[in-house]
Amino acid sequence: MKIKPGFGEEYKKRHDQIWPELTALLKYKGLSDFTIFLDEETEVLFAIQRVDGASSQELGQEEVVKKWWAYMSDIMYVNEDNSPKTIFLKEVFYLK
User: Fold this and answer.
1) d(CA 80, CA 78)
2) Is residue 80 part of a domain?
3) Structural domain includes residue 20
4) What share of the chain is helix, strand, coil (3-state, %, to 5)?
5) For the whole model, what pTM was predicted?
6) Does the residue 40 lie in any domain?
7) Of 1, 5, 11, 15, which residue is the catalytic one?
8) Nearest partner of 47 among 30, 57, 34, 58, judged by Cα
9) How much is the pLDDT for 21?
10) 10-residue block means of pLDDT along the chain (96 residues)?
11) What ranges make up the beta strands (E) of the chain?
12) Angle (nearest 5°) at CA 37 between 93 and 49
């Protein structure tokens, strides 16, 4: 994912105030250990989440997710449905 230039602090602020109904849905759907990192140089976001069900990107049919995506669309690069533009990253190393 990627934020628009200059919106790093706003992105963090919005996530510091994430809606309780959204976090409840994510946990209910089996997400945990959800972390988002920001590369301040490139403004690229990298998310890691433990999934025991659907990933956060697969919850786009949920009303609260649609509202969150719309809320974030002014500071992120998004698709036509306001879902964050994402790219697949190939795993090249894992240490357990």
Assistant:
1) 7
2) no
3) yes
4) 35, 25, 45
5) 0.88
6) yes
7) 15
8) 34
9) 98
10) 97 98 94 94 93 80 96 97 92 91
11) 31-39, 44-51
12) 65
